[in-house]
Specification:
Layout (H helix, E strand, L loop, with lengths): L2 H15 L5 H17 L16 E2 L14 E6 L5 E5 L29 E4 L6 E5 L7 E6 L5 E5 L4 E5 L8 E3 L15 E6 L5 E5 L5 E5 L5 E5 L11 E7 L4 E6 L4 E5 L11 E4 L7 E5 L7 E5 L10 E5 L4 E6 L9 E6 L5 E6 L4 E6 L1
Antiparallel strand pairs: 1-24, 2-3, 3-4, 4-5, 6-7, 7-8, 8-9, 10-11, 11-12, 12-13, 14-15, 15-16, 16-17, 18-19, 19-20, 20-21, 22-23, 23-24
Helix pairs in contact: 1-2
């Protein structure tokens, strides 16, 4: 093992295990880290050895700005290859949005009036359709499943909804309206959803409970991750993605600054396994995505320290190796919040909270 690798592992250990007393200590860590990363030879991008091409920004997309768009908290891609976004309109999540018991404080009688779910043209970024006005209070995650059903999480409502294509009333609702809780009948600020091809539903629950719930296609709870000390506790599972070919459910364990991959137990013949991916420059992971066409995870971090770049990562999940680090060429990431890959595995989309922005990349 090279001396740079040894120091990176040691610095990562310090960050995750030694409580700091001031931001100066944290910034000092990242200054050292940035220096080591800048030296290069010990942390090469290895996309060529894995047959992974470079990720390039698609310029001038969308070709025109989208009017009346709020913070874009979620993005997914439907089976037709069209990106679908979930935004907050005029609402902003700030320190006054919830009380200490996680109850929403900004009015339970006034949902967001503008349409919050918008389908875009993949080539131009122009709006194809929109809906969702008068339903949601504080949007967070969106997932379009293999049948075109749209799954949405609302952290104010503490609920997850399944809408069929074209429907304006949910087919399935999980959680109790405006009622946070930690028992199996309640959610608390759920963040993300992934749906398997056999209909199993996985919900990241979320900011309060830091757990993953597995349901059958009827919405009956089957499993909770983690349990019985299977692995170190999660701390804000912010995004999840399924890699069915590898029988993995991968979790952006945001505040632990890592990605955790577990066996989703859809194939009962496979032994339960779990492992974590933790690299020194990974930072707070906000999003993980996969198309099902390859064996890679595409991850995005977010603001962690002034000295740690906000960037994307292409990761081989079984080895935990970062194959490629990438970012836009026309500007920089600021506060990316979610990412999604098109079903054909050709394009990656990223949304940002602030500034409000959408990105498209060619894989």
């Amino acid at each position: 093992m090279g001396v740079h690798s040894t120091w990176l592992i040691y610095l990562s250990y310090l960050l995750c295990t030694v409580p700091t007393e001031s931001s100066r200590v944290r910034d000092s860590f990242y200054s050292s880290l940035k220096y080591l990363l800048g030296r290069g030879p010990d942390l090469p991008d290895t996309q060529e050895s894995f047959g992974v091409s470079s990720i390039t920004e698609v310029g001038n997309w969308p070709i025109r700005s989208i009017q009346h768009l709020g913070q874009i908290s979620g993005i997914s891609v439907n089976p037709a290859g069209q990106p679908v976004i979930f935004h907050r309109g005029p609402k902003i999540w700030d320190s006054g949005s919830f009380n200490e018991s996680n109850y929403f404080q900004e009015g339970t009688e006034e949902p967001i009036r503008v349409d919050t779910v918008i389908t875009l043209d993949a080539e131009t970024g122009n709006i194809l359709s929109s809906w969702g006005g008068g339903i949601f209070f504080l949007p967070h995650g969106i997932h379009v499943d293999f049948e075109g059903n749209i799954w949405l999480t609302d952290v104010a409502l503490h609920q997850v909804f399944k809408f069929s294509l074209g429907a304006r009333r949910p087919l399935l609702t999980i959680g109790k309206r405006f009622k946070p809780g930690s028992d199996f009948g309640h959610l608390c600020k759920p963040t993300s959803v992934a749906v398997a091809s056999d209909g199993h539903i996985f919900i990241a629950d979320g900011y309060c409970n830091s757990r993953i719930l597995k349901f059958n296609h009827f919405g009956d709870l089957e499993r909770v991750f983690p349990q019985n000390e299977e692995f170190v506790s999660l701390k804000v599972p912010h995004s999840i993605t399924l890699l069915e070919k590898q029988n993995l459910l991968c979790i952006a364990d945001r505040e632990n600054m890592r990605i955790v991959c577990v066996n989703p137990e859809m194939d009962h013949s496979v032994v339960r396994t779990q492992h974590s991916i933790q690299q020194a420059d990974l930072g707070r992971v906000f999003a993980v995505a996969n198309s099902g066409q390859d064996d890679m995870i595409y991850a995005i971090n977010g603001p962690t320290s002034p000295n740690l770049p906000v960037q994307g990562f292409t990761i081989e999940p079984l080895s935990g190796r970062i194959i490629h680090r990438w970012e836009p060429t026309s500007d920089a990431f600021h506060q990316p919040h979610d990412a999604a890959v098109s079903p054909d595995g050709l394009y990656l989309y990223v949304c940002e909270l602030q500034p409000i922005r959408l990105w498209k990349f060619k894989l």
